[in-house]
Each structure stands twice: as structure tokens, then as C-alpha cells.
């Protein structure tokens, strides 16, 4: 297998729900071009979802649908290594080993553990507590230079660095110490019904959140109902402070059409919000249409999808196994015959 000179990047994605317009415009859309600069690994973190109760058939479906949606959004399987976490056994294997090099005190300080155990007092399982060890294994197996993560995962990457450093100090250079990578941010899309909050699938008001797989009629309805602002001027003008709703719609329109704010202001000069909102809806419909159609096509093409995650797991296992052999040797496990 060829060695690449490119720096390595890896990220895990929990198959926890539908992709939103916010995550597409804000992040995923920019990932396609990362493949030119980096050797990229992305995996569906199915094992991580088990810390909360899942409906088995739904987990399976969501994992595959999510993979299909990411491919449709531009993560080309020819250029990126795409796989399913549970298909590469080394993740759980190294996860156990690293849990023996991670301190109880360190795990107790993870803010995500504290938050999640407060919210789910009836299911504070061992996996929820040791999950950062599995995440450290996910990362360290591939010796990545960069791990793109959101703010909420930074503490886990810090812990990964600490554990890797501790291991290297005990046994000599084994793991590359990865850096968190803050990707170039695209649009920060806000909720359509409460524009002071980020667009989120956990929003209680489902009208505030647009999904990649929403039908055109549904998208149009959500945009027609989007809140605009109660200021008196009633004109389309970018002003996040005083006109958060309109500014959010302008941002979405700009991201979908490539127009700048001055051009948008001119386009809707003299027209009210009533004319503007459906135009934004139409732009979103046209942006998402090819992605939705491609996702549906890929989801139905089970053989293709399987060929993608099979090839991905093969490539990933090869790399993971190299690290695993090193680790086992260093800590004193007998080499497999
Ligand atoms: N914990 C991450 C999340 O909840 C997902 C994840 C699992 C991950 N393993 C990873 C992210 C490794 C980056 C690297 O979003």
C-alpha cells in the first residue's frame, strides 16, 4: 500500500440523527476540498452511540443513511477513507488498553460525562464514563496530525493527547500527538423560529430546523413561517444585532446563491419580508435537491454502499493494525502467531 506524504486527518461522526441545513452549510460542504490537502479518515461512530439506549433497527438504518448522506454531500469514497467504527476491531481493542492508562480522576473531570450523567440519571453506564478512552483509541490508531472537532469535543482531544504522551513516556515513541483542528467555518446558521439559537436537530420547535432530507414543500413551509423581525423598517438589511431573523435568512440565501449582502439588499429593495422568505426557501430547495436525490439513490444502492464501507474498513484496518502491533509489543503482550 502506498505511503502518502499528506498529513493525516481523522474524525468520527455519531450516527445520531438527520443532517441539517446548518451542518451542511456550516461544515460538511467544506470537507470535500480537505481531501486534496489531507489524507482523510471519517467513520460512523456506531459504538459510541451505545452509551445511550438505541432502537437496534433504527441504529442500523441511521448508520447507513448517514454514510449515504455524507457521500452525497461530497465526501468522495475514492478520495477519503469512509468506514463504520465497529467494523475495525482495533478500536475496541485499543480502547480497553488505553482505559488502563487513563485515570479515574481524568475521566471524572470530563464535562460531557457530567452533563450526560446529570441528564440521564437512570443510565449512567460504564461506557458513558470510559467513552473518552474509546475516542482516544479511534484517534491514535491512525496516527493523525489533525482531528477536526467542535468545541464540545475539545476536552476529549486534550485527554487523548495526555494519554498518548503518558504512553510514549512509558514505552517510547508510539503515538503521534494529534492537534485539534478548527475547520474553516462556513455559515453559522441559526434556527428559523428562534434566530438567537443555532439551528439544531435537538431544537424543540421542528419548524426551526431544516433537514437535508426534507421534501421541497416542507422546506418552503418552514421558510414561509420563519420569524422575521418586528422592527418598523421592514426592509431586507443585514444587521445581526437588530434584525437577527432577517440577517439569518440573508446569510442562508448568500450561502446558497453565492450573492453578497449588498446584492441581496438591492435585489429586495422596496419588497417586504413576504417576498423575501419564499425566495430564500426556493434557493434552499435548489441547493438541497441534488443532495437529497443523490442520498436517496445511494441509500437504495445497498451493493454500492457496502462496497464503500468494505473498502474503507479494509484500508482502515491495515493502518490500525500497524499501530496495534506496535502497542502490543511495547506493553508485553505475546505476538499473535
Ligand atoms: N465523540 C464525538 C462526538 O460525539 C464523535 C467521535 C467519536 C469522534 N470518536 C471520534 C470525533 C474521534 C473525532 C475523533 O461528536
Write the layout of secondary structure elements.
Layout (H helix, E strand, L loop, with lengths): L6 E7 L7 H17 E7 L1 H4 L6 H17 L8 E4 L5 H10 L4 H5 L2 H9 L6 H15 L5 E3 L5 H18 L7 E3 L34 H9 L19 H14 L3 H7 L5 H28 L1 H30 L6
Parallel strand pairs: 1-2, 2-3, 4-5
Bound molecules: tryptophan.
Describe the protein.
The protein is mainly α and 337 residues long. Helix content is 54%, strand content 7%. The chain is built from 13 helices and five strands. A three-stranded parallel β-sheet has the order 1-2-3. A two-stranded parallel ribbon has the order 4-5. Helix 4 (90-99) runs parallel beside helix 13 and helix 7 packs across helix 8 (154-171). The longest helix has 30 residues, at 302-331. The radius of gyration is 22 Å and the shape is elongated. Residues 10-12, 14, 45, 48, 135, 138-139, 147, 149, 153 line the site of tryptophan.
Amino acid at each position: 500500500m502506498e505511503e502518502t506524504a499528506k498529513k493525516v486527518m481523522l474524525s468520527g461522526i455519531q450516527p445520531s440523527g438527520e443532517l441539517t441545513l446548518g451542518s451542511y452549510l456550516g461544515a460538511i460542504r467544506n470537507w470535500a476540498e480537505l481531501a486534496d490537502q489531507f489524507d482523510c479518515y471519517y467513520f460512523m461512530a456506531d459504538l459510541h452511540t451505545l452509551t445511550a439506549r438505541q432502537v437496534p433497527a433504527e441504529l442500523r438504518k441511521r448508520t447507513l443513511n448517514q454514510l449515504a448522506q455524507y457521500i452525497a454531500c461530497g465526501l468522495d469514497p475514492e478520495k477519503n477513507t469512509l468506514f463504520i467504527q465497529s467494523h475495525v476491531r482495533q478500536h475496541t481493542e485499543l480502547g480497553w488498553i488505553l482505559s488502563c492508562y487513563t485515570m479515574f480522576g481524568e475521566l471524572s473531570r470530563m464535562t460531557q460525562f457530567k452533563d450526560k450523567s446529570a441528564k440521564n440519571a437512570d443510565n449512567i453506564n460504564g461506557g458513558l464514563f470510559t467513552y473518552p478512552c474509546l475516542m482516544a483509541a479511534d484517534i491514535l490508531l491512525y496516527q493523525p496530525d489533525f482531528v477536526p472537532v467542535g468545541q464540545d469535543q475539545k476536552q476529549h482531544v486534550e485527554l487523548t493527547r495526555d494519554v498518548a504522551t503518558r504512553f510514549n513516556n512509558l514505552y517510547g515513541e508510539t503515538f503521534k500527538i494529534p492537534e485539534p483542528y478548527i475547520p474553516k467555518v462556513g455559515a453559522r446558521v441559526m434556527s428559523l423560529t428562534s434566530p438567537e439559537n443555532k439551528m439544531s436537530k435537538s431544537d424543540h420547535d421542528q419548524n426551526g430546523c431544516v433537514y437535508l432530507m426534507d421534501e421541497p414543500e416542507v422546506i418552503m413551509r418552514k421558510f414561509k413561517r420563519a420569524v422575521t423581525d418586528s422592527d418598523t423598517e421592514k426592509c431586507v438589511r443585514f444587521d445581526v444585532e437588530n434584525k437577527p431573523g432577517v440577517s439569518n435568512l440573508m446569510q442562508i440565501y448568500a450561502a446558497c446563491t453565492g450573492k453578497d449582502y449588498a446584492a441581496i439588499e438591492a435585489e429586495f429593495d422596496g419588497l417586504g419580508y413576504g417576498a423575501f422568505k419564499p425566495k430564500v426557501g426556493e434557493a434552499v430547495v435548489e441547493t438541497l435537491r441534488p443532495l437529497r436525490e443523490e442520498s436517496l439513490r445511494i441509500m437504495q444502492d445497498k451493493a454500492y454502499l457496502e462496497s464503500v464501507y468494505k473498502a474503507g474498513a479494509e484500508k482502515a484496518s491495515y493502518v490500525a493494525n500497524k499501530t496495534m502491533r506496535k502497542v502490543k509489543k511495547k506493553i508485553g503482550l505475546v505476538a499473535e502467531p
